TrEMBL record:
CDD domains: HDc (cd00077), PAS (cd00130). One of its GO terms (biological process) is signal transduction. Residues 456-789 form the PDEase domain. It comes from the Eukaryota. Zn(2+) 2 binds at D573. One of its GO terms (molecular function) is metal ion binding. The keyword Hydrolase applies. It comes from Photinus pyralis. Zn(2+) 1 binds at H536, H572, D573, D695. This is 3',5'-cyclic-AMP phosphodiesterase. InterPro entries: CheY-like_superfamily (IPR011006), HD/PDEase_dom (IPR003607), PAS (IPR000014), PAS-like_dom_sf (IPR035965), PDE8-like_REC_N (IPR057304), PDEase (IPR023088), PDEase_catalytic_dom (IPR002073), PDEase_catalytic_dom_sf (IPR036971). Keywords: cAMP, Hydrolase, Metal-binding. The lineage of its organism: Eukaryota, Metazoa, Ecdysozoa, Arthropoda, Hexapoda. It holds the Pfam family PDE8A_N.
Length: 819
């Protein structure tokens, strides 16, 4: 805070209008909230723009009265007498001198506000020219108005004399008169035109001194952002001399952040104050981040003529890598810096900003850069509440992990249901906690698989055949197929669906190879897993096939898309160990080591699929594809398998919803239903969403199937918890303990957090209302089971043997779209 006082220590910062109001009754007095200088934001817009406003906040001249007038004339006459009388009338303190020496001495002792010298005659005693020059050479005289009293003839006609008088240091000339009123008029004009501006300039010096002494960096630019004033702190801190800065543009000179500059300048040009952080480059090329306030000043007209930038040195942080060390010696200004700065966050902010700056210099524009820049522009035209909301949005957008969920804290806050919290956290978060413990993973045995290839399906029993006739219905009984096929449902269902979708033709592959492939893939599922076994793979493949039958998908998927989707569904969990990726990471499993704890299982499923497929010609379903087609198929399969990773659930869902569940906006701003669905990138989004939905479709199946899947996944979780406990590993889902866990609660949470929104979106896209209908019906039943206390696996078993014995088929007619 800067306070200026007059010589008596009185607070002297006051509106000139208050002073003016005493003299000029017709002057509009503008009210203000404080006596400090105003910024445009402090006043209503129209008030700020009104011309008198520019006077606000000026430091008023010393309030001494009367004004001191020195009249110097060699020979008193009626003219000088009229002048003195006029001055008396105005209440001036008048002194009259008749010689050069007397006048100089008098002036030096009193430093008058106004000196009027009789320039009509030159005499030995008084050379007006010399007297004026001498006075002007006196320190402090620059704040005194000097006026030459000239003959009427000179005033009217002799411009040469007038100019030489002004050259000698007079501020103006007045014509001789004996009319007191004329002199009164002249003196009032001189007071407004000369004395007050000079006095004002004199006291403004105090403000400059305040600016020079203050520790913040204060810069004033013109309307082209060329520096007009820099204070000492600026010189000291930036390392430039003021003459190296004056006249230079702030952009070129030291502001290293084009995006921020754009945001600042567009605010300032609209006469709005701006606040934010700026990256400032010092002369040494070190870069610092400072909190900056930009204030537009309108000195004339209606648009800003100057800008004041105040950089807060207390908020300055050195950002160059060499200056991260906190115990670096500090200079005078640096010693003001906070030492408790979070260096990591600052450095990441720095790198984000510098890379943004670099990016904006490239001839490329990422959509995100465009979005941020549009939001910044929108900020300029809106109110502070929206500005701060947009600030938050920009902060989020600036985070590179746009779609990754930050659910853990959120969930812990919102979801006080521990089973749900455990489940969703485990599904969505990568949380390896490295501990050295032996691997329990069973390794796959390729050679066994290949040896057994010949055990294909030559003759399909009638029961299986009948069941497979329903393979494209949503109510398909996968557990019955599991039973009938002696836990080998994939080979049967897979072959049935491959043939239905003409996959042999698409891959130019004989049926035997496809059968072999299915056999090997199925054998690489762990039959002992409660949930992640080949029945789950068959179930996901069956759901995928059901989706592919829908017109919306038929319209956009080509045969290779269909084949790839079915292949991906078959193999998406191959060799699943029945434990989560987090578990593998926690026990230093070789797969976790191989994939660096990142997307461990899905990477393994995808890699193993191709390792198996390409490893033996007899099962290589891609062997007849040309290289390009193979590459497309391979890319499709890998992309879909990786999309089943649950830590990316919200990323995939959000992308899908963004593209397909919102009306697209055309460039002209008009809304349109047009979605460029056939763009390859968009088809990829659909395929990812499709396999994701298929993968977790069990809560949308008929109740009997849904409950069995829920029991199976719970059993698998319990087994993992048991093993974690027995081996002293971190327990990934502590609530999934077979004694205490509530299975209905886990299902309610799973639907609430994962399934509901995804299936609403998916149904809206492919038009399969039965998905949502079953999901809702099942949800209600889980709530009932929960209320009735059917919690444990054995409770659920009992339910399955009683009320859930009814057939799974629900008449199509009962399925209504629920909008
Ligand atoms: N009914 C369910 N209840 C709880 N979790 C489930 C259910 N169905 C699927 N999941 C989880 O969702 C995950 C989807 O990917 P995975 O098949 O790897 O593993 C699956 C399970 O961990």
């Amino acid at each position: 805070m800067i306070i200026c006082t007059d010589e008596n220590g009185k607070d002297n910062m006051e509106s000139l209008d208050e002073q003016d109001g005493k003299e000029e009754s017709n002057h509009s007095v503008l009210h203000r909230k404080s006596s400090l200088p105003l910024t445009p934001e402090d006043e209503p817009f129209d008030v700020y723009r009104s011309p008198p406003e520019i006077k606000y906040g000026l430091l008023i001249p010393p309030n001494h009265s009367p004004l001191k007038l020195l009249v110097v004339c060699a020979h008193p006459d009626p003219v000088s007498e009229a002048l003195s009388k006029a001055a008396d009338k105005l209440g001036y303190d008048v002194t009259t001198c008749h010689s050069y020496e007397e006048a100089l001495e008098e002036f030096l002792s009193k430093l008058h506000d106004l000196i009027v010298i009789d320039a009509r005659y030159t005499s030995k005693a008084l050379d007006y020219d010399t007297l004026c020059r001498s006075i002007r050479n006196t320190r402090g005289s620059q704040h005194t108005a000097a006026v030459a009293l000239v003959k009427r003839s000179v005033f009217d006609k002799d411009d040469v004399t007038i100019m030489s008088l002004l050259d000698a240091g007079f501020n103006r000339c007045i014509a001789e008169t004996t009319n007191i009123v004329h002199f009164v008029n002249e003196l009032i004009q001189i007071r407004h035109g000369d004395i007050r501006p000079l006095a004002q300039t004199a006291v403004n010096q105090s403000l400059y001194i305040a600016l020079e002494k203050c520790s913040d960096i204060v810069l004033i630019t013109d309307d082209s952002y060329r520096l007009q004033y820099v204070n000492r702190s600026s010189e000291r801190f930036l390392g430039y001399r003021y003459d190296e800065l004056l006249g230079k543009s702030i952009h070129e000179q030291f502001i290293a952040d084009p995006l921020q500059v754009t945001s600042m300048t567009s605010s300032l040009m609209r006469a709005r104050e701006w606040q934010g952080s700026l990256l400032v480059r010092k002369k040494s090329q070190d870069t610092v981040s400072c909190n900056c306030k930009g204030i537009p000043i309108i000195c004339a007209g209606r648009v800003p003529t100057h800008f004041v930038l105040i950089l807060d040195v207390h908020g300055i942080t050195e950002l160059t890598p060499t200056s991260y060390s906190l115990d670096k010696p500090r200079g005078s200004v640096q010693s003001n810096r906070r030492t408790s700065m979070d260096v990591r966050s600052v450095s990441s902010d720095y790198f984000r900003r510098t890379s943004l700056a670099k990016l904006s210099a490239l001839p490329l524009e990422a959509p995100i850069t465009k979005v941020i820049s549009l939001l910044s522009q929108a900020q300029e035209q809106t109110n502070p509440n929206v500005v701060s909301i947009i600030d938050k949005v920009i902060e989020i957008l600036n985070n590179t992990e746009l779609y990754s969920p930050h659910l853990k804290d959120d969930l812990r806050l919102k979801c006080d249901e521990p089973v749900t919290s455990d489940l969703i956290t485990a599904l969505l978060m990568q949380q390896p906690q490295i501990q050295l413990a032996p691997s329990s993973r069973r390794s796959s045995n390729d050679s066994t698989a290949v040896r057994n290839v010949s055990r294909g399906i030559s003759k399909v029993p009638a029961q299986i055949k009948d069941l497979l006739d329903t393979s494209l219905t949503w109510e398909f009984d996968i557990f019955r197929l599991e039973e009938l096929t002696n836990k080998k449902p994939l080979i049967h269902l897979g072959m049935n669906l491959f043939l239905h979708f003409d996959v042999p033709a698409t891959l130019n592959c004989d049926e035997k190879t496809l059968q072999n492939w299915l056999t090997v893939i199925e054998m690489n599922y762990h039959v002992d897993n409660f949930y992640h076994n080949s029945t789950h793979a068959a179930d996901v493949m069956q759901a995928t096939a059901g989706f592919l039958e829908k017109d919306r998908l038929k319209a956009i998927m080509d045969p290779l898309d269909e084949a790839s989707s079915l292949i991906a569904a078959c193999s998406h969990d191959v060799d699943h160990p029945g434990k989560s990726s987090a578990f593998l990471s926690n026990c230093d499993n070789p797969l976790a080591i191989l994939y660096n704890d990142v997307t461990v299982l899905e990477n393994h499923h995808a890699a193993l699929t191709f390792k198996l497929t390409l490893g033996d010609d007899r099962i290589n379903i891609f062997k007849h594809l040309d290289r390009e087609t193979y590459k497309v198929a391979r890319h499709n399969v890998i992309d879909m398998i990786l999309a089943t990773e649950m830590t990316k659930h919200f990323e995939h869902l959000a992308k899908f919803v963004n593209v397909f569940c919102q009306k697209t906006s055309r460039v002209d701003g008009e809304s349109s239903d047009y979605i460029p669905i056939t763009l390859p990138d968009n088809i990829t989004l659909v395929k990812r969403m499709m396999i994701k939905c298929a993968d977790v479709s069990n809560p949308t199946r008929p109740l009997r199937l849904c409950v069995e899947w829920a029991r199976r996944i719970a059993e698998e979780y319990f087994a993992q918890t048991d093993e974690e406990k027995s081996k002293g590993l971190p327990v990934v889902m502590p609530m999934f303990d077979r004694i205490t866990c509530s299975i209905p609660k886990s299902q309610i949470g799973f639907v609430d957090y994962i399934v509901h929104d995804m299936f609403e979106a998916w149904d809206a896209f492919i038009d399969m209302p039965e998905l949502v209908t079953y999901m809702r019906q099942n949800y209600i039943r889980w709530k009932e089971f929960d209320e009735e206390g059917h919690n444990t696996s054995s409770d659920i078993r009992k339910l399955q043997n009683t009320i859930l014995m009814a057939p799974a088929i629900i008449p199509k007619s009962s399925i209504k779209r629920n909008d």
